[in-house]
Specification:
CATH class of one domain: Alpha Beta
CATH topology of one domain: Rossmann fold
CATH superfamily of one domain: 5'-nuclease
Strand content: 5-15%
Largest sheet: 5 strands, parallel
Distance between the termini: 20 Å
Radius of gyration: 14 Å
Shape: globular
CATH architecture of one domain: 3-Layer(aba) Sandwich
Strand order of the largest sheet: 3-2-1-4-5
Helix content: 55-70%
Order of helices and strands: EHHEHHEHHEE
Number of helices: 6
Length: 127
Amino acid sequence: MKYIIDSYAWIEYLDGSLLGEKVKKILEGDNEIYSLNLTISEVISRVKRKNGNIDIAYTAINSISKVAEITPEIAKKAGEFHAEIRKKIKDFGLVDSLILILARKLNAKVVTGDEHLHKFKEAVFIK
């Protein structure tokens, strides 16, 4: 199975929380794991703000997952999707839009605890 691990899920995994244990099972399974390159920035920002070890977080994401780049095609589709979804969900993030479009392109599921994503068919909700 293909999975994209979003920032929420990476943070839970790195924190070693109960929700992180669910992520760990997916990471340790026979799965193809991806992360969006912007996820690295989000996770590093959070880890640094909590005075954590950013090198451990960076190494984990890069060694466990394939880091997907934002192509012009994905950027365009995500922009269109974001504009439409913001009509319904006012605080829906652009990175969430990028992850969903990437998931659709890869035919993957998004591992998340983000409430904004839980109603999408691509989401595997860890809460």
